[in-house]
Amino acid sequence: MNEAVTSSYEAVYAGAVAIDESDRGRLWMRGRDRASLLHRLSTNHIERLQAGQGTLTVLTTPIGRMIDLLRVYALPDAFLLETGPRHGTPVLRHLRKNIFFNDQVTVADAGAELGQIGVYGPQAGQIIQALGLPADMPRYGIASGEWNEAQVLVARCEPLGGDGYTLYPPAVYTAALLAACQAAGAIMLDADTFDIVRVEHGYPSFGREITLDYIPLEADLWRAVSFQKGCYVGQEIIARMESRGRIAKQLRGLRLPAAPQSLPAKVIVDGKEIGDLTSVVRSPRHGWIGLAYLRSAYAEPDVTVFVDDQPAIVCRLPFTATAQVYDQ
Q: What pLDDT does 176 receive?
């Protein structure tokens, strides 16, 4: 593992890192009916969001399959939506085609207007404060601050290594703000190291674990689903799965002796396909690890399964240092 990966990996867990996340989609939703539109198209309770609050929600198909996992942030006059990487335009089209003729709502691309920077690690809040930006907010809270006379939106997101923030500066300020994060003490995080830490935390990723093949509960996205809201697209399937306690597949970790030949890779037990390995990384802490969807009967910790004829051990997420590690 090269020196840059090692230093940024260590900083995730002991300091702070920053990464340009401008490849993710950003959308504006405006108008009186923006909350009701997103409420009826996705899994979480959007209509109760107040300005300064946010949440995760999943856009689903009529049979409950995942279109994308969104971060939704409520501002006084708009919602800011964050989509998966390079998925902003398809999500924009999906939202627009579901606007009723009498809905007062508009959806627009915010990617050219806003950049995006992720700041993670136990000292992430200190970096944000060093920039003169607000850092004291709950998970998925959002606030506006000023940096070099530019308005920057600051949101609290899922933690990596202890904490996490997302900065949305004017797009033309993204490079300068990223450099300022580094000057304040953050180590630059590359995409490969981000993926290692993501897998360690058990976070599903768009295009790998978040696809039309799976349902939010299978992806362990319970936190993005409300069971107290009204009807939404795909609700019947998801509610039935929850009420009956019958989840066909579950997202689990796998500890592997080596990387598979390709992804996705079939997971086999007794000659039968029982799941799919969707992500794999080589972790400095855990060796070769991956995320896999497994049939529920094989999703218990310490079960041995096979990938490319090699044994792998099932474990719960996130990964911990106490479980079995193969010799490297």
A: 98
What is the C-alpha to C-alpha distance for residues 66 and 107, in angstroms, rounded to an integer? 20
What whole-number distance in Å separates Cα of residue 19 and Cα of residue 220? Answer: 25
Low-confidence ranges of the chain (pLDDT < 70): 1-5, 321-328
CA 153 remoteness from chain centre: 19
What is residue 321's predicted lDDT score, i.e. its pLDDT?
62
Strand 249-255 to strand 187-188: parallel, antiparallel, or no bridges (unpaired)?
unpaired
Phi/psi for 236 (5° steps) reads -60, -45
Q: Which two tokens stand for residue 100?
A: 């009723």
What stretch of H or E contains 310?
strand 310-315
On whether the CB atoms of residues 318 and 283 are closer than 8 A, the answer is no
What's the CA gap between 200 and 281, in Å, rounded?
9
DSSP 318: S
What pLDDT sits at residue 21?
A: 98
Of the candidates 76, 101, 77, 95, the one whose C-alpha atom is nearest the C-alpha of residue 27 is: 95
Structure tokens at 234: 């795909």
Close Cβ partners of 89 (under 8 Å, ≥ 6 residues apart): 25, 109
- Residue 151 is inside which H or E element, if any? strand 150-160
Pairwise CA distance, residues 104 & 120, whole Å: 37
Which amino acid, one-letter code, is at 18?
A
Q: Is the pTM of this model over 0.90?
A: yes
What are the start-end ranges of the H helices in the chain? 3-14, 34-41, 88-97, 124-130, 174-183, 191-201, 235-244
Query: Residue 8: helix, strand or coil by DSSP?
Result: helix
Tens digits of residue pLDDT in 275-295: 999 999 999 999 999 999 999
- Nearest-angstrom CA–CA distance, 238 and 234: 7
Measure CA of the first residue to CA of the last residue in the chain; give whole Å: 13
